[in-house]
Amino acid sequence: MTIASIMLAAGHGTRMKSALPKVLHPILGKSLVLHALSAVENVVDIPPVVVVGHGAEDVQTAIQAGAKHEVHFAVQEPQLGTGHAVMCARELLQGKSEQLIITFADMPLLTQASIERIIQLRQESQSVMVITTVMSEEPRGFGRVIRAEDGSVIAIVEEVDCTPEQLLVREKNTSAYCVDANWLWKSLDGLKPSSKGEYYITDLVAMAVAEGKRVSAHILEDPVEGLGINDRVDLADTERALRMRINRDWMRQGVTFIDPWSTTVGLDVSLAQDVVLQPNTMLYGNTSIGKNSVIGPNTTLIDTQVGENCHIQYSVAESAQIANHVTMGPFARLRKGAVLKDYVHIGNFGEVKDSVLGEGTKMGHFSYIGNADIGKDVNIGAGTITCNYDGKEKHHTQIGDNAFIGSDTMLVAPLKIGKNATTAAGAVVNRDVPENTLVIGVPAKPKERKD
Question: Is 35 among the residues known to form the active site?
């Protein structure tokens, strides 16, 4: 059967108290609507239709920039409830599918597996409509699922319309549906406005039952899939639930989380077997960690590749490449373009930007290396600074293998220091230094070695 989908993303989200449309608020760096789209993008046979309203232009722009597949849009203006939102997509979808998935953009934890399950259930049960539900003691503003004595679904009652007895019902509607498309388009015109003048998609359940048609319910195995977002408390709860879902998946794949509740792993992060993540570690973007590496505590890596057997603690790296057996921190920083080869060490308060540190090079503490190529087994003393910016342009520094850069050396670029060269403590080096040469002073000048 041909499957289409409608996602409702038109609401104001007034309880968010934000100038940003609710569906564009991010969790783990990705907007709610893009999370929600990921559950249906690979299920449907034709492009999903997103119904937009409040902040329509911004929502469309964000979806077009972040969606993996083509998406079509319908505009709901004015916003007269969920049933009216579905009506707004009729022109784009009527007659184009046999089944229709209806989801909400503020439900980012619903999975593709659950969508596939309600599609399967509708076919197996010959139901005109399948709803998703959760068993929960928390109201969260959800409608209550009302069943007959034989267990069949007969209605969904919105929380504001519930009787005291209905408010005690544990089964809640989570607002994801699979519907017979032909029946839906014919039935929408039968929806009656509420006292607020809005049309509710949930009223379709009672309509179907009145016609003698079957409505089935799929109780979500993981209740967090049903979390919807009304305010920033819900937003925080949902992000926490998503973090724990991701963390549990990685733990089952052989990654150790010392404190998973304080550790954040982004959606696009890759972790190898026997990685250890210490508390307060945050990994975002296209970050990957190799086998047996220990990251953290209190470390943030963004778009950074880390090799095997590394230990990085109390540090920050963005758009950097770290090879194998590297130790870094505490309190080190790698900026864009930093490359650390095997067995490099960067100690406390070291910073590297747009530079390569060769194999075995040591940069103990309180140093800045920018726009530089550093060879193998170089010692970079405390307080060493590459003076790479003259106020207009950045300049390059090159240091050969086995060089020894003394503490508090100022390297005034452009500059080339040869293999096995040495700079004395406090030197200001503004001229190239030949191989096997010791320079000393301000400005630094060659001095005969006594060794």
Answer: no
